[in-house]
C-alpha cells in the first residue's frame, strides 16, 4: 500500500518545512500545493487581469506545470494573499484536483502539504497531520523567512496578513481550512523545527506500523 502523508495547516504554520523533512526522511516526492494557488494568482497578475476573473483563473490553473515554478517570485508576501483569493473559487479548486491526486497516486506514495489534503485531495492518506501555531508565532516565523529572502518586513502588517488569510481560508465554502476528523493536530507554537519533526515522525511511524 502506498504511503501518503497529508500535512495541512494555516499560513506560516511550518507545514512546508515539515513536509520537506518527512519527504527527505522517507525518500518520497513532495508537493507544496500552495504553489499551485500562488502560481494561478501570479498568472493573472502577470496578464494584468483582476483576481476575481474566474474564467481566466481556471484557464491559468489548468495550464500549470508542476515542474515549472519560479519559487522566489511565488513565495513573496503579496502572492500568498493573492493566492487565497483565487483559492476560494470552487472552479479553480476543481481544476487543480486531478493534478494533485495524480501526484499522490505514485506507487511508493508522496507527501503533500496544503489546506485540504486530508479532507478533500487524499482523504484516505495513511498519515494526516494538522500543523498549527498561534498567529503571533506564525507572523514571527514568516517575518524571519521573508527577511531571509531580502524582503522588507513589517511585523504588524504580516500579523495582519496572517489573520486575514486565516479568516478567508477558514470561512470559504469550498474546501475550507480545517483539520480532517482523523488528523492529529500538532501545535508548534512552543516547538522548534527539529522538535516538530520528531513529533511528526512518531505520528508517521505509528501509522506506518499500524
Ligand atoms: O506558505 P503559506 O502557508 O503562507 O501559504 P501556501 O500554503 O503557499 O498557500 C497560499 C494560499 O493558497 C493559502 O492561503 C490558501 O488560500 C491557498 N491554498 C489552498 O486553498 N489549498 C491548498 N491545498 C494550499 C493552499
Describe the structure.
The protein is α/β, with parallel strands linked by helices and 210 residues long. It has ten helices and five strands; from the N terminus they run βαβαααααβαβααβα. The two termini are 12 Å apart. Bound molecules: cytidine-5'-diphosphate. The site of cytidine-5'-diphosphate (CDP) has 16 residues, from helix 2, helix 5 and helix 9. Cytidine-5'-diphosphate (CDP) binds at residues 11-12, 16, 33-34, 37-38, 80, 83-84, 87, 114-116, 165, 169.
Can you give keywords for this protein?
210 residues; alpha/beta; five-stranded parallel sheet; 10 helices; 55% helix; binds cytidine-5'-diphosphate
Cofactors, ions and other ligands in the entry: cytidine-5'-diphosphate
Question: How helix-rich are the residues, as a percent range?
Answer: 55-70%
Q: List the total number of helices.
A: 10
**Poorly predicted runs of 5 or more residues:** none
Name the structural class: alpha/beta
Overall 3D form:
globular
Distance between the termini: 12 Å
Radius of gyration: 16 Å
- Please list the strands of the largest sheet in the order they lie side by side: 2-3-1-4-5
Beta-strand percentage range = 5-15%
Mean pLDDT score: 95
Task: Please provide the count of β strands.
Answer: 5
Order of helices and strands: EHEHHHHHEHEHHEH
Described by strand count, sense and barrel closure, the largest sheet is: 5 strands, parallel
Amino acid at each position: 500500500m502506498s504511503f501518503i502523508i497529508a500535512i495541512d495547516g494555516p499560513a506560516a504554520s511550518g507545514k512546508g518545512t515539515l513536509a520537506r523533512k518527512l519527504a527527505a526522511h522517507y525518500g518520497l516526492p513532495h508537493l507544496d500545493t500552495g504553489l499551485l494557488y500562488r502560481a494561478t494568482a501570479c498568472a493573472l497578475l502577470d496578464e494584468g487581469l483582476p483576481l476575481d476573473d474566474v474564467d481566466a483563473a481556471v484557464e491559468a490553473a489548468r495550464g500549470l506545470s508542476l515542474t515549472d515554478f519560479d519559487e522566489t517570485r511565488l513565495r513573496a508576501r503579496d502572492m500568498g494573499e493573492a493566492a487565497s483569493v483565487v483559492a476560494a473559487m470552487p472552479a479553480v479548486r476543481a481544476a487543480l484536483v486531478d493534478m494533485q491526486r495524480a501526484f499522490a497516486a505514485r506507487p511508493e506514495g508522496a507527501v503533500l502539504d496544503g489546506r485540504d489534503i486530508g479532507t478533500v485531495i487524499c482523504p484516505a492518506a495513511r498519515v494526516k497531520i494538522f500543523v498549527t501555531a498561534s498567529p503571533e508565532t506564525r507572523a514571527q516565523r514568516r517575518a524571519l523567512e521573508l527577511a531571509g529572502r531580502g524582503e522588507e518586513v513589517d511585523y504588524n502588517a504580516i500579523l495582519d496578513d496572517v489573520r486575514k488569510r486565516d479568516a478567508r481560508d477558514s470561512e470559504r465554502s469550498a474546501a475550507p481550512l480545517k483539520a480532517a476528523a482523523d488528523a492529529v493536530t500538532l501545535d508548534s507554537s512552543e516547538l522548534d523545527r527539529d522538535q516538530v519533526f520528531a513529533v511528526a515522525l512518531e505520528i508517521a511511524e505509528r501509522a506506518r506500523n499500524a
